[in-house]
Structure formats: structure tokens, C-alpha cells
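explain this:
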Amino acid sequence: MKKITVAAAALILVFAAALLVMGACKKDSKTLKVGATPVPHAEMLAEVKDDLAAQGIKLEIIEFTDYVTPNTVLISGDIDANFFQHIPYLESNDEWTTKLVSAFGVHIEPFGLYSRKYKSLAELPQDAVIAIPNDPSNGGRALLLLQDKGLVTLKPDAGLDATVLDIASNPKNLKFIALEAAQLPRSLDDVDAACINGNYALDAGLSPVSDSIIIEDADSPYVNIVVVRKGTENDPRIQALRSALISAKIKNFISSKWQDGSVVAIF
């Protein structure tokens, strides 16, 4: 009798554990965790939260204020997707390109040069100190912007990951300091000008269109994308997120909230 009771108890425990696992899997399959920088990415995600809920998907938005952690936690499996970066940034790290992939693109945030001391390029003095992002893709983006506006000339083979070592001509003898992208708005009091990513400019209350000295042209290749682990691109939750973000609702949200063109939908 004792043996039967023990065996029965063991079966009950196994059955209960199985139910718990099944329940957890069921719960997880209906939850979508997306990491995002606050502005404008998390704002867009918040707009579609109810739309996904209507499909039985609970959207959890995890906000990050830097550009490295969102890819790290995505690779570890702590989140299901992230929304903060462009393809050149994703491709700047071999581990990221091996394990992660763009699921779809949503918008462009024009990249600009800002200054609290000068109102035009003509006012920038000789030996001016310019702050640029310290990651390869956005640092290169800054230098390409400066080249496009005639401040520097880069070597022909510099590419999207250009560095200050690729500067072939620098008529104003500009000095460059590289800072973590999130720190750039706070550097404006200490430098002559700073090249700032659109999301961090917006988060600091700056309009890329009206507050920048110079800004990227409309044909910028730096589309902001939703990124997932390779092999999960066709996950129904990701496809539902795509449909929700690539929609008339979000296009209208972008055009009404950022009427000055600080954020531009690509669809």
C-alpha cells in the first residue's frame, strides 16, 4: 500500500509539473517583450499595445537608455525583440549579425548637428570641438553628415563606418571627441557642437528639424528597425507587431506628433 501511495504521489507531482510547464509556455506564447529607447520607439509601441491585446498578445515594453543593452538582452532571450537601431548599427558587431536579424523597418529619425553657441555652419570657428557618437556606425554617420555639408572630406573608401582617421581634408581644423550616444545632448554646454541621434535629440527636447544647424537629407539609409533573434522572424507575435506598427494608425500618429519631420515613416 505504501509503495502504491508513493508511486501515485510521484505521478501526481509529475503531472502537476507538466501542467505548470504547459501553463508557463501558454502564458509566454501570449506575451511579447520588446526593448526600446523611450522616444520615439516606446511611444509607438504604446500606441499599438491595445491592438495586440485584442489579438490576445500582451505587449511588455522594456525601456533602455543606451544602445548596447537591448541587443545583449535580446541575444540572452530575456526579451523577444528590440526597437531602437538601424541596420548599419546592427551590422557593426559580428555577434549581433550572427544571432540577430532585422524583422522590418518602421521610420527614420534625421540625424543632426546641434550647438548652443552657434546658429550656422559659417559661425563655427577654426579648431571648433565637435562631439560625435563613439559607436562605429553612428560615428561614421556623423562624419558622413559633416562631409555632405562640406565641413570635412573623407577618403573615398571610408564607408559607413568612417572614423576620424579617414578624414582627408579638414579646412576648419575641427577637433573631435567621441562620446556614448546618450551623453551627446548633455555635452552641448561643453563643446562647440555635437552630432546627435534623432531619438536622443527628441528625448532632450530638441527638434532635429528646427534646432539643428545641419540635418541629414531625406534619403538617409538609416531606417529604424525591429530586430529579433534569427529564426523567430515568422513568430506570429512578431508578425502581429509588424502589422500593428506598419499601419495607417502609426503613420498618422507619426505625422501628427512629429509634424516638423523629426520622425518620418517609411511605409
In short: Residues 32-109+222-265 form a domain with the D-Maltodextrin-Binding Protein; domain 2 fold (CATH 3.40.190.10).
